[in-house]
Amino acid sequence: MDKSTLLLAAIILAVFGASVAAGHPHWGTFTGIAIILLAAGLAAGTLPVHSQDFAEERTSPTQRISNGLITLSSAAIVAIYAAGYHRTSPAAHRFDSQIPQQRTSATIAIATPPPGANPGSAAAPPVSSSAAPAIKKNTKRPSTPSRKAAPSSASDSAGSSSAPSPASLTNPPIEAAAAPAGATKSAYKDGVYLGWGSCRHGDIEASVTIQDGKIALVAISQCLTRYSCGWIAPKIPGAGLPDLPSQVVERQGPKVDYVSGATESSYAFADAVVAALSKATE
Amino acid sequence: MHLPMQSSQHYPKPQSNEVVRTVALMGTFVTVHVVGRVAGYKGETERTERERAVDRALDWFYKIEECCTRFEAGSEVMRLATRVGVPVPVSTILFEAVQFALAVAEATEGAFDPTVGYAMESLGFNREYRTGQTIRTALDSNFPVSYRDVRLDADSQTITLHRPLILDLGAVAKGLAVDLAARELQSFENFAINAGGDLYLGGCSPSGGPWSIGIRHPRNDGELIDSIRVSNRAVCTSGDYEKRAANEEQGHHILDPHTGTSANGVASVTVIARTAMLADALATAAFVLGSSDGIQLFHRLGVDGLIISPTLELYATRGFRECH
Description:
CATH superfamily of the largest domain in chain B: ApbE-like domains
Number of domains of chain A: 2
Shape of chain A: rod-shaped
Distance between the termini of chain B: 44 Å
Mean pLDDT of chain B: 86
Radius of gyration of chain A: 34 Å
Number of helices of chain B: 8
Strand order of the largest sheet of chain A: 1-2-3
Oligomer: heterodimer
Structural class of chain B: alpha+beta
Structural class of chain A: alpha+beta
Helix content of chain A: 40-55%
């Protein structure tokens, strides 16, 4: 029985109770009042009790699940952070020892578009991120000798499973120094190698640092993907959302701090790395 | 080093109190951006301390990738796949990641399911981004698998696979790494972490006030379809434009666990949550559920989000609209 039917029954009962009370002076008053009370109880039952059930259904389990997942994710972070601090400190030391190496290749600002990085200065941070992936419209492709050769070798090796397999699959490229599998020989020669990869949005140049025959670091040295200048999206009619938020318009141009949603082609990057690695095996 | 010189005349120089570092990790680009100084240090020491904090934050990405990647036969999660039916002791990272993934699977009734790893590998999502090498796992998996085939024991910190399956922790692991990096940078009030569009924004942006985050237009590269302002929150966007499969024209990286093919009901999903691992997992789940059920899921779980249909209709929770 739904709420409206119950409510209707309660009203009919109340009217009936009132007429009984009025029409029968002797026993009617008592019975009539009893019927009215019953009707009131019924009406009361239809409204608040049910809405309370409804509210419970809506909020209580919701809160429980939601809080549960939020709590669980927070607990996971705390647990790993606590456990990781001791257990992973050797890894952190290894990382420290790589730092001088990294500073020359890894401080490259990938997300920032200007061609190149500042290879020399270890301490100098790269370009500010307020210049985020947005500003790519002005970048010009430099004429790098490696560029022409790279995409073909990249597509060759990337397209087939017969890609150069210089190390066994069990050889983790990062922190490979820690790998127990000391038996795996590497065919890589130490150095820093560059390679290009292409996708329909433009080109990406990867730099791969080989240290002790292992891949020590992979970074983007140049990112020339073309993004259109239309950072202010057209308004979508009837979407119920405002046009691009006023601050973007006010600040004239691509002034968001970051963009959510992958903005680079990972496959172009993989091609670039393959191209760079193929040089390391020559 | 033969890197071209930087031509930064068009770009603002970073303030002296900022550090921005980007490396290639987890098949994408990870940027850590710290604004402000470390209290209690001065001058060069302070700068070194700041750089070290950024190193430690990035180090979490290495550690989690090492453990959770599907693209390395030797990773912990892939070694787990070779042992079916027995409890396998695992690291805290893997245990917590799987535990969380299973909880989300439970809460979304399998719309998010971490056991799609083998299906993804079969569809061509099997290439290690650094080396370009592909992985092919020999797995006797003729029967359908689901998250119910994975059992955890918290006391002994073991995982038992009841059927041959590969766990795909992509969504959870990247989020987890972002969260741990954020935890590492807690001593800074203002910082941002960007892992291929999975973000955590702490405090304020360099220009003051909440960080301004653009939501990528799912069809027009380089355009924003919306933007929001957030502080101390994670923002994750999953789009059908990401990681198209090598051997499928229309395939993208999010599978409907029930059909084993790419989910096609929506173009992109953005979730704002307290942790990136929750935001990323729920973005994936909503992607599979579609716009209507996805928004309901957000309401039910108390997160905010935006769902964009393939015809570019926008559906948002009220809280999301309030972030403008």
